[in-house]
Design brief:
This protein is an all-alpha fold and 75 residues long. It contains 1 helix and no strands. The chain has 2 domains: 1-35, no CATH class; 46-75. It has one helix spanning 48-74. It starts with 47 loop residues before the first helix and ends with a helix. It binds zinc ion.
């Protein structure tokens, strides 16, 4: 584990250094170490299972979008 155990939903001060070289005073996102400004974004699924899952989810989203678009064109 990269971080010490914390209760779920715990919001600690972020503490990342700002451009003023001051510790960030925002609270971290629940269950995370840094605030929403400093946490960075996910770089996406890493495992084959995760990649397959997101691919399937996107297929469903596109299928739903195409269905609504076609309904509008037909209407
Ligand atoms: Zn921060």
């Amino acid at each position: 584990m990269r971080s010490p155990a914390r209760p779920p939903g715990h919001r600690a001060p972020c503490g990342a250094l700002t451009r003023k070289k001051q510790p960030c005073r925002a609270l971290s996102e629940p269950g995370r170490q840094r605030c929403r400004f400093h946490g960075g974004q996910s770089t996406g699924p890493k495992t084959p299972e995760g990649r397959a899952r997101i691919a399937e989810a996107q297929r469903r989203r596109w299928a739903a979008w195409r269905a609504t678009k076609k309904a509008q064109e037909d209407g």
